[in-house]
Amino acid sequence: MGRVFSEEFVQIYPDYYMCKSCGTTPIASPGNHLSTCLEESGQRAAFFTKALNVQVDEPVHYYKVDHNTVSDIYCVKCGNKLGWKFIRVGENQMVVRNGFVRLMMQKLLKRQGNQILDAVTMAPVPRNP
């Protein structure tokens, strides 16, 4: 695997998206959220200007999606695949740029203040005792 990004949020009650699998690793800030779309499979995906605490595949594993070169990204703590990073974006893209990420919302939780919410339904998630 490739380069590891590691960054912490320093607010008292930060709002951020985190990995659903391990339940603790901050992945993206709502301030970096661009848009959310519904895929043909019925899953929700969100586009962010950057992601934190993700590991990016090596160049040998890059692949094409439409006219873009992308790489899978994984949580640095648990290795769960979270989405992909745009390595090279094709011409005539309106929103997406090199380095932006596409995250699968069903693989994320959202911390909002002191609550943990499901990133798709925004329903509170019960905490383990």
Any idea what the shape is?
globular
Structural class: mainly beta
**Count of individual beta strands:** 11
Tell me the distance between the termini.
Answer: 34 Å
> Which H/E pattern describes the elements?
EEEEEEEEEEE
- Oligomer status: single chain
Q: How many alpha or pi helices? A: 0
**Uncertain runs:** none
> If you compute it from the alpha carbons, what radius of gyration comes out, rounded to the nearest whole angstrom?
15 Å
Characterize the biggest β-sheet.
7 strands, antiparallel
**Mean of pLDDT:** 86
- Portion of residues in helices? under 10%
- Strand-residue fraction? 35-45%
Features of this protein?
129 residues; 41% strand; mainly beta; single chain
Concise summary:
The protein is mainly β and 129 residues long. The chain contains no helices and 11 strands. The protein has strands at residues 16-19, 26-28, 33-38, 44-48, 54-56, 63-65, 68-75, 81-88, 101-104, 108-112, 115-118.
